[in-house]
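> agent: user asked for a holo structure of the chain below bound to adenosine-5'-triphosphate. Plan: (1) validate sequence alphabet, (2) canonicalize SMILES, (3) run complex prediction with ligand conditioning, (4) return tokens. Step 1... ok. Step 2... ok. Step 3 dispatched.
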Amino acid sequence: MIAVRNLTHRYGDATAVDDVSLTVEDGSFVLLAGANGSGKTTLVRHFNGLLSPDEGTVEVNGRPVAEDLVAARTAVGMVFQDPRDGFVASTVRADVAFGPENLGLDRAEIRRRVESALEAVRMADRGDARIEELSGGERERVAIAGALAMEPDHLVLDEPFTGLDWPARTAVLDRLQHLRDSGTGVVVVTHDLRDVSALADRTVVMSDGRVELDATDPSPDRLRELGVRPPPETESESETARESRTTSESETATDDAPGRRANERR
Ligand SMILES: Nc1ncnc2c1ncn2[C@@H]1O[C@H](COP(=O)(O)OP(=O)(O)OP(=O)(O)O)[C@@H](O)[C@H]1O
């Protein structure tokens, strides 16, 4: 479990994360959303000690992150958008193998993990490709494979789907669902709730550094209020509901006060 308690993070005088408490249980899938600058990336960077709190604590599997950074980074895998500088080897397969090799695993286990991770991002046939020759989306997929190959207890993906085509996106989501079902805690930071929200056990929305919403089934209206576009199904349901509301209001309006009703709808 990742347990964040009363976490505050400041950049100079600006408070980016403001007294946030949040837990990510093993085997749960948490969607972390919120407008630009609301503090999502800053928050998740604390999950494996990439940042240290100004106030509050973060524990992973019951142990304070600051006490053992290596343990925290082994337990919490992290993938960020645009991983341009994050590669350590020249070919895809060597890069994905780097982390498992550092865990001291035997060759057969490293091979199993690497092939399985490449399969998950639909790059199984590109293992020998040179990183420098890959497109942006392919690089993102290699970065995701690198984190998958570590088989961490928790996996945090910050805007992981931006450059991914639909087949890759679907394949990665399938793997995330499978991981969640087998006990991994998954956190996906995204502005785009399409497809991901169907998998999420909870949606957490940040605004101005605070957690403003933590719900299993957030209402589309509340999401909109917090600057998050609802997933399409709920959005269209809501549109339908609004349309039918508008129609019945307009029927009533014809009966009693047409001008006033028309203004209200605007
Ligand atoms: N390295 C930094 N130095 C100073 N301020 C920063 C730094 N990183 C982030 N901030 C500020 O902290 C606030 C939160 O930023 P953060 O990147 O955590 O938000 P976010 O919700 O992930 O945004 P986005 O959706 O745009 O990625 C913003 O006001 C941002 O300008």
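> agent: step 4 complete. Summary for user: Confidence is low (pLDDT under 50) at residues 237-266. The pocket of adenosine-5'-triphosphate is lined by residues 11, 14, 16, 34, 36-42 (CB under 6 Å).
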